[in-house]
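Friendly challenge for the regulars: who can give me the structure tokens for this chain first? No prize, just bragging rights.
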Amino acid sequence: MKFLSMNIRKLVFIGVLVSLFILFSYVVLKSGPLAPVLVTSATVKSRSITPALFGIGTVEARYTHKIGPTIAGRIKQVYVHAGDNVHAGQLLGEMDFVDLNERISAQKSLIKKGAAAFLVAKAQVLHASASNTYAKKQANRYEQLWEKRTVSKDQLEVKQQERQTAKAVLDAAYANLDVLRHDLAKLRANLRGLILHQSNLRLVSPINGLVVARDADPGTTMIAGQSVVNIVDPKNLWINVRFNQTSSYGISKGLPAAIVLRSQAKHVIAGKVVRVEPLADAVTEESLAKVVFNVIPKPLPFIGELAEVTVSLPPLSLSPIVFNASLHRINNHLGVWLIKNGGLHFVNVKVGLSDLDGRVQILEGLKDGDRIVVYSQSALNSHSRIKVVKNLPGTSP
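First reply, four minutes later:
Bragging rights claimed.
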């Protein structure tokens, strides 16, 4: 009886050990390091995708008119402020050029003096011309008398010398008249320039536009070319967009674009590419393009406001498509995990363009019908055991 009781206890103990071993093995194989890795999969299919480029840009004015004086002066008055709408020809401000009126008066006096000198030179030309004509006639008459030997050789030479002197005096008078004519023209041109500067006392808007900056106030002394007021045309706004160079292939003039302003995050505005800059930014490794609104939005976007721009490229031809999440780089080789005969095989692929939904064009390495891993619960290798599920735990279906 005692022997039987001992055998029963041994059997119970062995049974418990076997049960614990089976339970341990089950746990190791199902949830331990030897458990299969949960993965989701997809079947490769050929389809056409529409690739797109995403970039960040700023709203800018295509043309900025900087209104200011053409010569140094002091601001007398400014009549507009930033944010004001102005029309073409509207008076924006006035300048006070300290000595401009005195310079104009001095220039007019110089012109009168030059005109008088010009008249004197003109009279000198007439006098020299008459003297030259008389000397020429006398010389010709003495040459005829010399042929008849009624005058001496010395008398003839004197008259010829007088003719040459009269000719030289006439040439000098003409040259002096020409110099005074050019001097007078220069003085009059200077006067016109001063009068033009005087007309620039009035700072006038050249366009219908919006004042975006007022750079100076009354009493400020300005130099030539310095801006007092900056005006832009609200109808000519564009976005200076930057695209990553690695994904900017294919962008060209005329492509449609979707614009989202930071101030209107829920509103997509239609636009198009009007220019692709030939010079890229070598520091940030970005390509630059200009995108315009098809219709200027209301309210008007802020100049300098950030905007997100998506440019749609032409649709691609049919080719195998995979999700970007299925691509992995192992040993510097880009590829996907191919599920074949229940095992995993890493296949190198050559990719093309992608769209903003994460679909990537496969140029080489896969064909229609191949089954690949999209997401995995942990890192995979060629010896990993996998279990294909519809969704990974903790993710939305």
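The mean pLDDT is 85. Helices lie at 2-31, 100-147, 153-199. Your move, everyone else.
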